[in-house]
Amino acid sequence: MDLDIDTVRVARTRADCALRPGEAFLGGGTFLYSEPVPAQVTGLVDLMGLGWEPWSVDGSGLRVAGTCTLAELVAGPGSLGAPGPYRGLGIVGECVSALSLSAKVARTATVGGNLALGLPAGSMAGLFVALDARAVIWTPDGGSRELPVADLVTGAGRVDLAPGEVLREVRVPGRALGARTAFRRASLTPTGRTAAMVTGRTLPDGDGPGRVLLVLTASVPVPRAQPIDPGDHEALDRWIDSIAAAGGWYEDTHGTADWRAAMTRRLAHEALDELGGTA
Ligand SMILES: Cc1cc2nc3c(=O)[nH]c(=O)nc-3n(C[C@H](O)[C@H](O)[C@H](O)COP(=O)(O)OP(=O)(O)OC[C@H]3O[C@@H](n4cnc5c(N)ncnc54)[C@H](O)[C@@H]3O)c2cc1C
Question: How far apart are CA 189 and CA 38, in angstroms?
Fold first, then answer.
């Protein structure tokens, strides 16, 4: 840990979120305190002091605050995912477990911090893209903007967040909560960093009878989502084949590109079978 900073301010109000020169936001700090703080960062603004309700659910859907910890996400929304109106949340626990975090770190790490990092192995993107969520972002001028979580990550470790913008919450629409969802992951070792992750959801019949949405993360630099007809494994293969040309597969010490591509293909076919009703 290299804490070469001058100040930490605890934000209590929105006005406190106005960054001063050299300041950056602090969520749980599990990433910031595990890496050397960038030289230009001389102060941190702790968002946890805002006291946001971690999550809430009603007829319009689920809201998860940027400061909701991963442990709170599992204990709250994750516990609702039994068969019933919230069965889509059945993948919450698996998506949190896909992060190579101890229980202690999961009690501190936040949903907002995970999304704001935009790491390929940041499984909150795979979760919330599968659930068709939108990100609500506070802008420094006092306004806010929204975008699909699918568009938030723009590259490996890059996100569509301007300096001073706060990821306030993610909103999952009610229609996604009752869908069937699927989860698959692969890593080089059982407790290793996720190298390929496939999440998916059944789509409403208006999108085509029995269609499913499949989402790839961890093996690709940005989340990729595609609707597929039930049982259409040829279409799925064509989509997977197209990824090498369109941005390619991600590669690092946690898996080669070829291996990730092969794992992703296998996991995606399994998820299509599960959601398409043939498994
Ligand atoms: C042992 C270990 C294993 C890990 N494994 C993984 C892994 O498998 N996959 C993975 O993705 N990560 C992993 N991480 C990194 C990190 O712990 C997680 O991504 C975590 O979810 C980050 O959340 P945080 O609240 O601690 O973020 P912080 O460290 O507080 O912040 C991270 C970044 O996000 C910004 N930020 C935080 N909250 C907001 C917000 N609401 N709005 C705008 N910007 C914000 C901060 O300014 C900073 O740039 C790991 C870390 C450790 C220590």
Answer: 31
